[in-house]
């Protein structure tokens, strides 16, 4: 059965408390058993170590990690959408701008 839903987090140096709350919310989603969901993090060169510090606490969520080396939101978006398999998308933007 093909993937129906894609939950995509777009990240660039997200505030750690903010990304933690987002991940907690995702982990509490009531997904029907017959729903096929893919979870993607498309990171755009974060350098605040959030993945190493926070992501291990959410290992029950089977994230695919996409690391986009070209700086800029559009590259992260294009990378994620070129690899996603879902029919419907939930996109969460967690990019911190300085």
C-alpha geometry = globular
Please give the share of residues in helix: 25-40%
Approximately how much beta-strand content do the residues carry?
25-35%
Q: Secondary-structure element order, as H and E? A: EHEHEHE
The protein's oligomeric status is single chain
Q: Trace the largest sheet across and list its strands.
A: 3-2-1-4
Lay out the secondary structure.
Layout: E1 5-12, H1 16-27, E2 37-43, H2 50-54, E3 63-67, H3 73-83, E4 88-95
Parallel strand pairs: 1-2, 1-4, 2-3
Can you give a write-up of this model?
The chain is of the alpha/beta class and 98 residues long. It is built from 3 helices and 4 strands; from the N terminus they run βαβαβαβ. A 4-stranded parallel beta sheet has the order 3-2-1-4, covered by helices on one side. Helix 1 links the parallel strand 1 and strand 2. The longest helix is centred in the N-terminal third of the chain and has 12 residues. It starts with a strand and ends with a strand.
Identify the notable features of this structure and list them briefly.
98 residues; alpha/beta; 4-stranded parallel beta sheet; 4 strands; globular
